[in-house]
Amino acid sequence: MSQILVLNCGSSSIKYELFDMTGPVSVASGLVERIGEEDSRVTHHVDGVSHVVDGPLADHRAGLAAMNEAFTTTRPIPDGALVAVGHRVVHGGDRFAAPALIDDVVLEAIRDCIPLAPLHNPANLLGIEVAMQANPDIPHVAVFDTAFHQTMSQAAYRYAIDRDTADEHRVRKYGFHGTSHAFVSRTAAAHLGLDERSARIITLHLGNGASACAVRGGRSVDTSMGLTPLAGLVMGTRSGDIDPGAMIHLLRMGMSVDDLDTLLNRSSGLKGLCGDNDLREVHRRAAAGDEVARSALDVYVHRIRAYLGAYLVELGGADAVVFTAGVGENDPQVRAAVCAGLQSLGIEIDETVNSGVRGPLGPVDVATPDSRVRVLVVPTDEELEIATSTLATIN
Ligand code: ADP
Questions:
Q1: Does the domain at residues 3-144 carry the CATH identifier 3.30.420.40?
Q2: So what CATH class is 193-382?
Q3: 201 contacts 215 by C-beta, under 8 angstroms
Q4: Residues annotated catalytic, as ranges
């Protein structure tokens, strides 16, 4: 039996999932949250049962120990079964185009990317260091959100600003959600029996964070997020694309850099447009005649269609459009609105099939039989993708 533990460490949380790679199947998963506070909590799911343990956890070391305790008291990991730990790392800059076996050089390179992701990379690093101390005898692998997009051409990733300034500060498009775009594009190609070397697939990861990606032959050729995960689509609380001149204007009007950060990351997107960031609530209000909610939906869908159009041109057409993540997997209305009126581009959704697809059903083709471009709903599984990449790296 070979098992892989996937860890996703945030500043005050640890998300984890254990996989048995002979399936591969998920054995157990959980969340340690509010680390560093009095009311920390471990929620551990195994064999269809959720176990909750409350109590203060001072730091990530205590958090990982609590996770281990949850395994021990429910279904212990058999001796020798754990062969590696896969760590999600948000930013690999242009240093990582693939997962990496962690050693001192890799740790230093991840540290070197902290200025590009000052909130995420330090927490990811802390998780790696604590987990390596707790499990020193097995390999640890870093899997980067950015790595899949390192195949973009300069034409796609360069911003048209002064070259020296851009290079000095490493300002360029990196892209994120790479594990998800890689996973769902590969799953879609396999489901449709497409030739992996030539398939043209547009993936729409629509969750709280959201991004689009153009994939040709299994490689990312363009994506909507940029230097940071703030660019591109309208998200739950993030703005997505906005004229950079608007930033200068707001700074001149007296906003501080921190005000801007909060505005763009926390009080923009659907939340900023209508006060709600959960699309279920936005739909409910729109259906009840709320014009503000209606117009928020319009902005949300308009932006997705703008990227869909751009990527259809970039790929010279597409074999498939893939919807994934919370909204993509569960929201037939958004899928229908994104694909509305695109018959002349070869995209046509079957309304009856589409309206029945909610939840993690596995890949489902919701296009009409005549649709030249297939439209798929593919549940994403970033943890499984990290586990698979980890196993491939240690082998
Ligand atoms: P994250 O980016 O945090 O991983 P998810 O991919 O889980 O987020 O997506 C969460 C979002 O998915 C919610 O904020 C909500 O807008 C949306 N969502 C979840 N379920 C539904 C549903 N049944 N209908 C429409 N939207 C949904």
A1: yes
A2: alpha beta
A3: yes
A4: 145
